[in-house]
Design goal:
Blueprint: H1 5-17, H2 20-27, H3 31-45, E1 50-52, E2 57-59, H4 61-86, E3 89-95, H5 104-114, E4 118-124, E5 139-142, E6 151-159, E7 161-166, E8 186-189, E9 208-211, H6 215-223, E10 229-232, H7 233-238, E11 244-248, E12 255-262, H8 270-282
Parallel strand pairs: 3-4, 3-5, 8-9
Antiparallel strand pairs: 1-2, 5-12, 6-12, 7-10, 7-11
């Protein structure tokens, strides 16, 4: 039995909507059709994809992998339809939080000049892979090493680490800070995408950590004066905020910026993007 697009759309809808009933509503089909499509897909692949209880539906380990591939396939089909209708190719590059910082605009302009037939779309997707694993993009800018079993990547540049403090914080009047200056404070971090971890500080001298899930929430917490942050330099360029001051952290290792793509499905434009981004970072 062949795998069909309707089978993949059904699986993704069930996972995203959470129930067979909601998936059927989202797809505009009957619940019985959803069940049949899922059963057909599981038979075709020879694996169980979903774990069902009376209260929830969750993907199995195999299901998680298949869902990621399904999202990519469906996104590529949608792109194919769009490109066929428009006569233009498209390239989606995902990122979490801060894109390319000061280089974002230059990258967009230079790409458009060098590749006028390929529309570039930068997509903010606040996950560890910047939307790559979720099928939201073909390439992603990441600041943490991706899973080497699934993704290839290339280092395109380095960024300083900056402390983010309220504009009236005692540290805000300095030209720079050190990690020890942040001990005893509470740092707001995004553990899914961020590069700030307790390991930046020696044991016994680590600040407290409080989790957030969005850059706007992060900035709001810092501007309020009771929290601080440590982030890549790109954040300061992408998100200047009244009430927040950014300061270089002199003794912190720089943040490594990578371009990532699927190991088993490298995008043909990956090397061109790597070369352009590397040139932009080297020109700093």
């Amino acid at each position: 039995m062949d795998v069909e697009l309707r089978h993949l759309r059904c699986l993704v809808a069930i996972v995203e909507e959470g129930t067979f009933t909601d998936a059927a509503l989202a797809l505009g089909v009957s619940q019985a059709a959803v069940s049949r499509n899922l059963a057909s897909l599981e038979r075709a692949l020879g694996v169980r994809l979903l774990r069902r209880t009376s209260r929830e539906v969750t993907p199995t380990a195999a299901g998680t992998r298949v869902v990621a591939h399904a999202r990519r396939v469906l996104a590529e089909v949608d792109d194919l339809v769009h490109e066929a209708a428009s006569g233009r190719a498209g390239l989606r590059i995902g990122y979490a939080w801060s894109a390319l910082g000061r280089h974002t605009l230059a990258f967009q302009r230079r790409w458009a000049e060098a590749h006028p037939a390929t529309d570039l779309h930068l997509i903010r997707h606040n996950t560890g892979t910047g939307g790559l694993a979720e099928g939201a993009c073909e390439l992603a800018v990441v600041r943490r090493p991706p899973d080497e079993r699934r993704f290839d990547s290339a280092i395109v540049g380095l960024e300083r680490r900056l402390a983010a403090v309220a504009a009236d914080d005692p540290l805000a009047g300095r030209d720079a800070v050190r990690l020890a200056d942040l001990t005893g404070r509470t740092l707001v971090v995004d553990r899914r995408t961020g590069t700030t971890t307790p390991e930046l500080w020696p044991p016994g001298a680590r600040p407290a950590f409080e989790e957030t899930y969005d850059v706007d929430d992060w900035l709001t917490a810092i501007a309020g004066g009771r929290r601080i942050g440590v982030t890549a330099e790109s954040t300061a360029h992408q998100y200047p905020r009244p009430g927040v001051t950014y300061l270089p952290v002199l003794d912190a290792e720089p943040v490594v910026v990578r371009l990532a793509w699927w190991r088993d499905d490298p995008h043909p434009a990956a090397q061109q993007v790597v070369e352009l981004l590397t040139a932009l970072y080297r020109a700093e």
